[in-house]
Design a protein that fits this description.
Blueprint (H helix, E strand, L loop, with lengths): L2 H15 L5 E2 H9 L6 H13 L3 E8 L2 E8 L1 H6 L3
Antiparallel strand pairs: 1-3, 2-3
Length: about 80
């Protein structure tokens, strides 16, 4: 598969995984992996890029003893995508 096509497909899969509400990295990997192979080293740059483009909003929650980043689709994404 073409690298650019896979990159775009992964972004769409990540946004689809977040269509039902907020989620965190491991769960997103689990959801997306049902359709296409994805690793942590692939997912987190995608999440950061989508966040910087305004398609995602990230919030951090401290759940003892760990700290989790939760992601939800942003306003820009909701306006651009049809559910």
């Amino acid at each position: 598969m073409d690298v650019q096509m896979k990159k775009g497909l992964l972004e769409i899969c990540v946004l689809k995984a977040l269509s039902d509400g907020e989620s965190y990295g491991y769960k997103i990997i689990k959801d997306v992996s049902a359709y296409i192979d994805i690793s942590e080293s692939t997912l987190y740059p995608i999440l950061k890029r989508l966040e910087s483009d305004g398609h995602l909003v990230c919030t951090t929650a401290a759940l003892f003893p760990e700290q989790y980043d939760f992601y939800v689709r942003g306003c820009k994404c909701k306006a651009a995508l049809v559910p």
